[in-house]
Write a structure and sequence with these properties.
By secondary structure, the protein is α/β, with parallel strands linked by helices. The chain has a single domain (18-74, 90-131), classed as Methylglyoxal synthase-like domain (Rossmann fold, 3-Layer(aba) Sandwich). The chain has 7 helices and 5 strands; from the N terminus they run βααβαβαβαβαα. Strands 3-2-1-4-5 form a 5-stranded parallel beta sheet, sandwiched between helices. It is globular, with a radius of gyration of 14 Å.
Amino acid sequence: MNIGIIAHNSKRTLIEDFCIAYKGILSRHDIYATGTTGRRIEEVTSMHVHKFLPASLGGDKQFTEMIERGAMDLVIFFYNPSMIEPKEPDIKNVLFACDQNTIPLATNIATAELLILGLGRGDLDWRLEVRSSDIL
């Protein structure tokens, strides 16, 4: 499965810790992330991450385009709701694209853990069927 990971600057340590904790599950899938987040995940986990440009240089748009194509199976976007800046990835675009394309999205640690544990159990295997049948 294709797992998208994106985080605002103030949440990067949290996403790193999350990826370390769930490396066993994440390592069995293809991970996509914006540039800086992807590099930091690679550094702390030694997993390969497909990296887009940094968000401020258009990586958030590349990330959203992959969602819009239905090529992303799960998205984890840790954002800081009290500190949204123009240079940060736009949560609204990602949220809208995920909802429009029936892609599970976690925006906090609690839902991210539920989705990752479900992924590990096979609860999200329906995404493979949806993607292969071009229903989206």
